[in-house]
Amino acid sequence: MTQQIPNNIPQSGCYETTDRLTKVRCAAPTFEGLIDKINHVRSAMGAVSGAGLREEVERWICKEHPEDCTGVNMAIPRKRNLTLSDIIHGTKVILDLKMRGGTLVDREEAERRGAICRYCTFNQVYTKPCTGWCNEMVALVHDIIGHQGLPVDAYLHACSICSCQNSAQIWVPLESLDKGLTDDMRAQFASVKHCWKKT
User: Given 19, 46, 104, 164, which residue has the most CB atoms within 10 angstroms?
Assistant: First the structure.
């Protein structure tokens, strides 16, 4: 699929759409604000968002307001300006998947994956304001992998394709991780030459 919202602020001055999951109409003056609002509403209603929320909302906006979109092939991986809230959201999806499956890969496999992620173009650094969010990220990773950790963790940031914390997702079985991916994400992972997350 080809789409992209080129500007954080739309031509109309406000992004507005109905969340297909909660059926709640949400509006915000920026795209990032709209994502945050939809996440907030879902959280308040006890609804779980998948890792592909941003792509879902892009589709809705592009369908309803094509004047705010420009052509980009969604199957081609692209770096994004990830925020800490994006990473928290993506990592919560991993936690939910792990809690359903309950298992982790062995240390040797996690080390293999970590070595690949370390040098990946899409292992993206993101700003860490280190307020309560940093503590939440530490707690999330701990809930997923326990006390396990690897020397490579210091070089692992966030995956710009799925918005997941790499130091956590390298421990989760592929069949569990795949349940949190959109078709666009699968296509993007397939385009990355040495990615261990291809399914």
Answer: 164
Predicted pLDDT of residue 120: 95
pLDDT of residue 73: 63
**DSSP state at residue 152:** G
CA 176, CA 101: separation in Å to the nearest integer?
7
Cβ-contact 114, 167 below 8 angstroms: yes
Whole-number Å distance between alpha carbons of 151 and 111: 9
Rounded Cα–Cα distance for residues 196 and 186 (Å): 12
Q: Is 13 left (phi over 0), alpha (psi -120 to 50) or beta?
A: left
> Residue 2's pLDDT is what?
53
How would you write 41-100 as a 3-class SS string? HHHHCCCCCCCCHHHHHHHHHHHHCHHHCCCCECCCCCCCCCCHHHHHHHHHHHHHHHHH
Number of helices and strands (H, E) in the chain?
8, 4
Q: Which residues of 23-58 are buried (b: 16+ CB within 10 A; e: fewer)?
A: eeebebeebbbbbbbbbebbeeeeeebbbbbbbbbb
Which residues of the chain fall short of a pLDDT of 70? 1-4, 6, 71-75, 78-81, 128-133, 199
CA angle at 166 for the pair 51 and 121, rounded to the nearest 5°: 95
Q: What is the pTM of this model?
A: 0.65
